[in-house]
Amino acid sequence: MPANMSLFSVNAILILSTDDRSRILTKYYSAPHAPPGSTTNHPGGNPYPSVKEQKAFEKGLLEKTNKQTSDVILYDGRVVVFKMEGDVMLYVVGGGDENEIMLFGVILAFRDALAILLKNSTDKRTLVENYDLVSLAIDEIIDDGIILETDPVIIASRVSKPPTQDITSVKNIDLSEQGLLNAWEFGKLKLAERMRQL
Question: What pLDDT, in 10s, does the model give residues 149-172?
Fold first, then answer.
């Protein structure tokens, strides 16, 4: 077993605009507990801790992938998988020795979840208008660099609808004056029963 095997497999997930080369949403991950005496080269380490380094990395990445026909490249010692959707590029960045098939599964899950959530309209304007859904989808897929879920239907269902147990309990509440009086009487009866049992 390799000495640096870790659950932390994603260094960053990026959504960049191809038109004006702007950031739409970027999340860089680092492990909450780095090994003692290590630099950013350990699994789960953030190789780009400052915003200046992140923007330089993103600019070079866009230039390198703008005319690419493949979906996986090695850039700056990192495995990068990407997909172009409309006028945006979706990226998942992993360590240099990371499994590219696993990272490719993450980018496909992210792309397909966005297609479900945004009704096949994955462009810059729609992403900005639905920033909350996009951010929640990323959080459902990856947590601190650890891949949690890769099924786009499950991701979209967790992001788009509230928990069902809360909805059913709210529907059965009668908030009219008579309903409140009935609740008061019911509470008095139950309290009286409890008092008699003691």
Answer: 999 999 998 887 655 555 555 566
At 47 the three-state DSSP class reads: coil
Whether the CB-CB separation of 94 and 10 falls below 8 Å is answered with yes
For the entire predicted model, the pTM comes to 0.73
Q: How many CB atoms lie within 10 A of CB 86?
A: 16
CA proximity to 105, closest of 2, 16, 10, 1: 10
Show the tokens assigned to 62: 């866009």
**Inter-axis angle of helices 100-117 and 131-141, to 10 degrees?**
150
Residue-by-residue DSSP string for 65-134:
HTT--SSEEEETTEEEEEEEETTEEEEEEE-TTS-HHHHHHHHHHHHHHHHHHTTT--SHHHHHHTHHHH
Alpha carbon distance 156, 166 (integer Å): 19
